[in-house]
Specification:
Length: about 280
């Protein structure tokens, strides 16, 4: 029996998950491009949440979170990808702040320095955050139940569970006691956390803590992706507070660059692991 026939189910699962993760970036770019034809180029990818691209944008990030959990592998890699997956839904469900007049159809009244959360979207954010907390709590309970039934090893998922509980508590506490700050900074914090953790995933792919070592070409590419993500994050943190002073959508370019690096990682890893007998992360 050929190798392909004997391992079709496992290999196809991992192949499709990696292709799907790369595909989420394609979905976001296509939806943003179509929306840009109607509303023009906005100052950031995140602002297209307030355009007809919203459904595709949110759906792609939620689907990506599920795929990240499914691909999480073992050890440190599992913990990092599980943590990364925790922040993707927050990026989707908590929209960015906007500068008055910067997004067609989005109205903001009163003082705004330099950007504000659109009041009309607070109910949407509330629904999304509460759904995130309830579903997140249910996932934790199911994981604990499976551990109690000895269907999964608590030691293997313990760190991921601890991180999940900590993030859920932080989100709940901030939402209840510092809602204005949450709305103002939640999207940016979730974005930085997501890509920062993913940069660490890229480094671990270049220098794995267990299993075989990647070929030199893959090590170089993964290291380059990680370095690129770090540079992008620094630029993002520096540029976001100055969006109104730029006169050019540099934040849009920075966010698009981060997405392209995310896309590149999954394409490269898909090629590297296409025919491996155990295609999970190391």
């Amino acid at each position: 029996m050929s190798h392909t026939a004997s391992s079709t189910s496992l290999e196809r699962t991992y192949r499709y998950l990696r292709i799907g993760l790369a595909g989420t970036v394609v979905v976001i770019f296509v939806s943003v491009g179509l929306a840009a034809a109607d509303v023009g180029w906005l100052s950031s990818v995140s602002e297209y949440y307030f355009t007809p691209a919203r459904n595709a944008f949110v759906g792609a990030l939620i689907a990506g979170a599920l795929a990240l959990v499914a691909l999480s592998g073992r050890g440190i890699e599992r913990a990092l990808l599980d943590a990364t997956a925790l922040f993707a839904p927050l990026i989707a469900l908590v929209p960015t702040t906007v500068i008055p007049g910067s997004v067609p159809g989005v109205e903001i009244s009163g003082p705004c320095e330099p950007s504000c959360f659109p009041p009309a979207y607070i109910p949407d954010a509330a629904n999304g955050v509460l759904t995130y907390l309830v579903v997140g709590a249910l996932v934790v309970l199911v994981a604990l139940l499976l551990a109690a039934l000895r269907q999964v090893a608590l030691a293997a998922i313990g760190f991921s569970l601890a991180v999940a509980i900590a993030v859920l508590i932080a989100v709940a506490a901030t939402w209840v006691f510092a809602r204005d700050a949450f709305l103002q900074y939640g999207h940016v914090v979730a974005t930085v956390a997501f890509f920062g953790l993913f940069a660490a995933v890229a480094i671990l792919s270049a220098f794995p803590t267990r299993g075989g070592q990647p070929a030199p070409v893959y090590r170089v590419v993964y290291t380059g992706i990680a370095a690129g993500l770090v540079l992008v994050l620094v630029a993002y943190v520096v540029l976001v507070p100055r969006t109104d002073d730029l006169g050019f959508p540099l934040v849009l370019v920075v966010e698009a660059s981060a997405l392209l690096l995310f896309f590149a990682f999954w394409v490269v890893q898909g090629v590297e692991k296409w025919s491996e007998a155990d295609p999970a992360l190391r």
